[in-house]
Amino acid sequence: MTTYSALHVLLCPDIIHRITSFQRGLFADMRTFRTLTVPAIPNVAEFAHLETHLQPWYASQPLDRLALVVATLPQMHDVVYAHALVSGRIHVLDGAPSVARHAPHLLSATQLWDMAAFGGHVASLQFLHKHIPKTMRPSAMMWASRQGHVDSVVFLDSIDAPASSAALDGAAATGQVEIVTFLAARGYPATSRAMDEAAKGGYLDVVQLLHTTRDAGCSKFAMDYAAGHGHLDVVRWLHAHRREGCTTYAMDAACANGHLEVVQFLDAHRPEGCTKEAMNWAAWNGHLNIVKFLHDHCREGCSVDALDWAARHGYLDVVAFLDCHRTEGGTAKAMANAARYGHLNVVKYLATNRQHEASFDRALDEARASGHDTIVAYLETYTRSI
What we know:
mainly alpha; Serine Threonine Protein Phosphatase 5, Tetratricopeptide repeat; SecEffector_AnkRepeat; Ankyrin_rpt-contain_sf; Aste57867_8494 protein; Ankyrin_rpt
């Protein structure tokens, strides 16, 4: 009986924890925390990484054990705080008062507010408002707005949180029409960046809202960005309702990204035109339909980069079109890079049709260095025959 009683006492969890606290090393449940650090917003992946480590621990351990975790691994104070604010687990801080009542070692009050706003949990913002009121900066409203957290934006507005044009600009950039509507109605400022970025993202409803509610307007970047990202509806609307216009970047970028309908619209309705880079970049990305359209409708032409870049990426159809229909030609880089990146069909075409530009020795060196034995064999055979 005495032996059983002694064993029962010694196996008491509280006594075991007290005894083992004098041992060196980490408790088994804390080993996974050794490498954890506080992520920087807006790194969602790193916060998700914290979740994979902390959620199972919370599910299996009492919250009052956090005090021991923080005492053993001091950096975990900041990690626990940041994770709780971003994930909305305020019960973690409420359940571990010894952790909550001490401010994090590395994170400033501004950073705590930013993390809470980024996470979008009103409970986190209320916790900070209770414990460290009036310590936020305009970045908190910006993060809440940009991330689309309507309730958080309304709460921050209700406590007169400071804000700058970054809030409305940020909401517009991510297409948060409800937040843009709220902020505009409340008189928050905006800059031309708001409409520019909304156009870039293809958020026509936001562009239209800003047009009717704000005086900041936009810049030429609005149509430039919209064209480059293929948002034809936004390009059409800006052309019809705004006077800023665009630059040659609009058509250049649309060509580079293969947006033929946008290119056709700009060519038909805008006077800005394009540069040689339009065909160059279309060739780089293998957009033969764009290359053909520019050849038929625009005078800017291209440079030797077009054929060189098409060869580099193995676009034989583009190489052949440029060879047959354009006069700019290419350079020795065309065959050299085709050989380097393993495009045997392009190497054969250039050897047959643009031999005068080719450097066979250079192409062989590139093929050998890259391990393209088939190209090496072809070039060795071909050079012996000429």
